[in-house]
Amino acid sequence: MSKDNTQRAVFATKIGAVAATVGSAVGLGNIWRFPYETGVHGGGAFIACYIVFVLVLGVPLLCAEFMLGRGTRSNILGAFRHSSPSGRYWVGTGYMVIIASVMILWFYSVVAGWTLGYCYDSVTGVIAGMDTADIGEHFAEMTSGWRNVVLTLVFLTANAAVLLGGVTKGIERASNLLMPLLFVLLLVLCVNSLSLDGLKAGLTFLFRPDFSKITSEVLLGAMGQAFFSLSIGMGCMTVYASYFNKDSRLGRTAMSTALLDTMVAILAGVIIFPAVFTYGFSPEQGPALVFQVLPVVFGRMPGGMIWSSIFFLLLIVASLTSTVSLSEISISYFSEDLKMSRRKATLVSTAIVMAGATICALSFGPLGGIEIFGLSLFDALDFVTSNICLPLAGLAISLYVGWVVPKKFTKDQMTDGGAYPFAWYGLLMFVLRWVCPVAITLIFLNSIGLI
Ligand code: PHE
Known about the structure:
There is one protein chain. This protein is mainly α. The protein is 74% helix and 1% strand. It is built from 18 helices and two strands. The protein has a two-stranded antiparallel ribbon with strand order 1-2. Helix 9 (199-207) packs across helix 12 (250-278). The longest helix is centred in the N-terminal third of the chain and has 33 residues, at 91-123. Bound molecules: phenylalanine. Phenylalanine binds next to helix 1, helix 2, helix 10 and helix 14.
């Protein structure tokens, strides 16, 4: 990537742009957060809402962010400033997402640190053969001490190293190679699920929605998960789209991103829930769920610790491609608006994230007493960013692109400057103008009890 903003880099190939976008979307959000949110919110009904939100809010907002990014070739603030004459009144949203991206990195890198720890524990055989109770203790021990902090900081150092390598070299190469591998491994684990006793119970939990379970909490949770998983409402996809080629066909890229991302999440569900019911876990354990269930699954497979080492290694890479995109939000702001060199911007951003992530990592141990609205620091950061900041930014982006940005701009973007027809343009604009803002507002009002 260039150091100044007069000559921005582009992803070298079209497939590379899609792979990097999918790399941002696919991460702990799919494999860690999706199963735990599904478990907490009762299964099938949550998933049904989630899928509706991906289609109705996710795909249109992905298109909106892509248009802003590629059309202005700038970071999230510039994307507002340069897309319409009154764009400067909307930059407040840009500042909010920059702050939210840092807050997400605070807790995300802690979970990525757990992944690192589990990879190490698989290679050394420490977690081999642990049963349901042992693994619970192991998880509690790992997360409650300084090991949690060290793992988090090691992960963030790796993140900084990728970022210093630059956009096309670092991100694209890693995504192209390792994302397909992760997908294959998930398929292997799904096949393994087929042989478990809890298969039927797990699949029923996942795919038989009990619509009477849809509460305001389920709706808010499913909406937050859709935003989090697709990396939308964060300016992330805006920044990435600013590296797209002229002929990237935004509509198609949005659809493929949403499809692949949802497939990975569903695969993760099919891996986790049959095992939950087979090995006597509770689906409602929250953030620890996947880290307790998976080692037991691997422990029962032939050659389990080898599979486990590879799996956690790939999960680290999937997390890295997401944290790199999250970091890119503040780094592009520091380097383009505050005129820092790319190197300095990366170091400043890493320092801020390391400081916050350390505190967050300690919230499982020494700082466990600190509560915000009855939630631990970790849970509060997760809730506020995913369920409030991302949908709020999504609301602003849909209103802005739907009502304020000139039609010529949006039409040009969706048709690659007239090179390809885009039959869904009218529907897309209708959804951005009306459906997204009304749906997000209603869900917010509903969740605070006003309707
Ligand atoms: N979508 C990523 C994941 O599922 C997380 C993320 C959220 C990345 C917001 C960028 C922006 O893991």
